[in-house]
Amino acid sequence: MLQAQWTSDGIGAVEVAPGPLEPGWVRLQVTVCGICGSDLHYYSGKLPMPVGDVPGHEMVGTILEGGKGLADCLYAVEPNIPCLECQQCAAGNQHLCQRARFIGLASPGGLARSIDVPTYTLHPVKTSIPPLTASLAEPLACSYRAVQLARLQIESRVLILGAGTIGLLAGLLARDRAAEVAITARHPHQQEAARRLGLLPLDEDGAEDWAGDREPDVMIETVGGAANTIHQAIEACQPGGRIVIVGIFTQPPTVNALALVIKEVEMVGSSLYGLGRHGREFRSTVELIPRYRGEMEALLTHQFPLASVAEAFACAADKSSGAIKVTVITG
């Protein structure tokens, strides 16, 4: 079986033999797996590269083995595997389980011909949705939770920091719930993608001017890394506003605590996907895909075969390539 693996100098594809299937798990033939911004933190060396591990958590596929009684269809995989025994799991907060294993990090990932996953992580995809589009279910779910935590009102003015996949999808969801949605976009192809989604793209200076004029009451941070975006969010947010942090930071960010106190700004982290009004947020997101299919598909900029996974990562890491979502075709 061909799979991607982190190596001492990057990433490559190797042949391995699959092991035995655990009880209660299924073996999925992976069709498509996207490359996430968090994967790029490892690729760039900003986070310690887990040599020998198999990355990939934005995957869809069909059942090869196990899963008795499950439908023969395409499934999106919810990649968080909680312990199901701790206090957080008992309270329904499986996304906050501190003993959880995450597929593509603490458990082998989806950049492979096949993957073993617990049955309860599978979410059926409507037959009208192609696998490439369905692979956006995981980033859409991250964005969905962030927008839920933002507590948007019809009069809300929203500024999203970062026009990667998560930021653009958060903007797409916020667009239908708020009065105005702007987004910071550094690159021309990100600006064009934002316009296609009905968002207002802004460069750094433009964002400062827009925030000074419009006084956004909701900020959604999606950049992470080593960016100074939490400071920027506190400065831009109106007094009494709310900041939702989604980005994965690779070093502790600077926080203007005085401004945070004086402005009484609420700041909340958004971790993965949990439970919402309609049950599991990941499942709710999968059911949303048909509504936004056409707009989401515009974000799928590049596709590579699994054997060319190194080239796929190089493309995703190089924004001059015009990449937004780079996807690996594994099936």
List the helices and strands and how they pair.
Layout: E1 2-7, E2 10-15, E3 25-34, H1 37-43, E4 58-66, E5 75-77, E6 80-81, H2 87-90, E7 101-102, E8 114-118, E9 122-124, H3 131-134, H4 137-150, E10 157-161, H5 165-175, E11 180-184, H6 188-196, E12 200-202, H7 204-214, E13 218-221, H8 229-236, E14 242-245, H9 257-263, E15 266-269, E16 275-276, E17 279-280, H10 281-297, E18 300-305, H11 309-317, E19 325-329
Parallel strand pairs: 10-11, 10-13, 11-12, 13-14, 14-15, 18-19
Antiparallel strand pairs: 1-2, 3-4, 3-8, 3-19, 4-5, 5-9, 6-7, 16-17
Uncertain residue ranges: none
Please, what is the oligomeric state? single chain
Largest sheet data: 7 strands, mixed
Shape: globular
Fill in the CATH topology of the largest domain.
Answer: Quinone Oxidoreductase, Chain A, domain 1
Q: What is the number of strand segments?
A: 19
Q: Approximately how much beta-strand content do the residues carry?
A: 25-35%
Q: Can you say what the CATH homologous superfamily of the largest domain is? A: Medium-chain alcohol dehydrogenases, catalytic domain
Count up the helices: 11
Tell me the series of helices and strands, N- to C-terminal: EEEHEEEHEEEHHEHEHEHEHEHEEEHEHE
In the CATH hierarchy, the architecture of the largest domain is Alpha-Beta Complex
Give the helix/strand class: alpha/beta
Average pLDDT across residues?
Answer: 95
- Helix content range: 25-40%
Whole-number radius of gyration?
19 Å
- The end-to-end span amounts to 11 Å
* CATH C-level label of the largest domain: Alpha Beta
Number of domains: 2
